[in-house]
Amino acid sequence: MTEYIYQLLRENIRKLKPYTSAREAYEGQDGILLDANENSYGSPLGNNYHRYPDPNQTLLKSKISAIKGIPTHHIFLGNGSDEAIDLLIRAFCEPGRDNILILPPTYGMYKALADINGVETRIVPLLPDFQPNLEGIADQTDDNSKLLFICSPNNPTGNSVHYEIVEILLNHFPGLVVIDEAFINYARQHSFIRELTTYPNLVVLQTLSKAWGLAGLRLGMAFAGEPIIQVLHNIKYPYNINAATLSLCLQALDQLELVNQNIRSTVSERQKLSDSLGKLPFVIRVFPSDANFLLVQTIQADQIYKHLITQGIVVRNKSKEPLCEGCLRITIGTPEQNDALIQSLQNYSQS
Ligand SMILES: *Cc1c(COP(=O)(O)O)cnc(C)c1O
């Protein structure tokens, strides 16, 4: 392992001797398998579900590797990207001593998982243009700052973080820079995945939950240099991706054309919805979005939110978050759903 990553790790993780599961020790499916105390009489559902799944997720990783154009040793798969976030905190942050940095308003799970792990979260709000505050980050960083989370495109603001700003942070932050690209397929800016060989401290998170439409299957991806991937592999639950998810995701990844079509539809609906929302009298502004949602600033967020609920339409009220005064976050729907939303909002303006 490179010395740099080794030094960042918690001491107990450095010393860890990983558990070896039965299926890791013997990788074949052939022979008489009496090594793992599985049910030799089979599963009520068939599909080989009586067998533990592949802890290395070899097939699924090869397919993702082919689609993303990066080698499998740069890929970690988790039970959602949330698992990767949790494991990064647990591998690198000593509770009560180390800290992570977040740039709110942003995804809530970074702080939630740091809190659960007893790790301090340092907060450096985004600037009014929703870009990182480089001076603020430098001020809050010390020798115990292990992870910097950058969400790009950012949830809930919808914008991408400028590529050059992320590069500055990759060059100067002493710990790992984790770029959460959950919404990258909807963005104009390209992924940081191609920079993995340039920056040993880079971790890119992606997910099948958004553009791939598979939130229910829970499949998250972390892309990083081999030493980081090895650590995540060593500390995960051996069978963190279940057999149903493995085989369904393999099937889904054959549907790239359909997924790309849905991405194009979402992006064109995003423009239409943004234009329609912008014309409503109580909308102050619709922020530009690189994601599958819009952040909309209104004069009466709470009332509009409640009105929509009475119409059976649920959006996210973000008006209590920093820099999001009066804001609702609205996921891009189908054309019919978006029409219904606009109709309901026009009724609100008349009431
Ligand atoms: C939806 C989302 C994720 C995805 O999490 P999963 O656990 O993979 O479903 C990650 N980060 C952000 C910012 C998100 O909005």
What ligand species are in this complex? pyridoxal-5'-phosphate
Please tally the helical runs, counting DSSP H or I stretches of 4 or more residues: 13
Oligomer: single chain
User: What's the overall geometry?
Assistant: globular
User: What would you report as the Rg, rounded to the nearest angstrom?
Assistant: 22 Å
Mean pLDDT: 96
**Element-level helix/strand string:** HHHHEHEHEHEHEEEHHHEEHEEH
Strand content: 5-15%
Helix/strand-derived class?
Answer: alpha/beta
Widest sheet: strand ordering: 1-7-6-5-4-2-3
Major sheet description: 7 strands, mixed
* Contiguous uncertain segments of 5+ residues: none
Instruction: Count the beta strands.
Output: 11
**Beginning-to-end CA distance, first to last residue:** 64 Å
The helicity comes to 25-40%
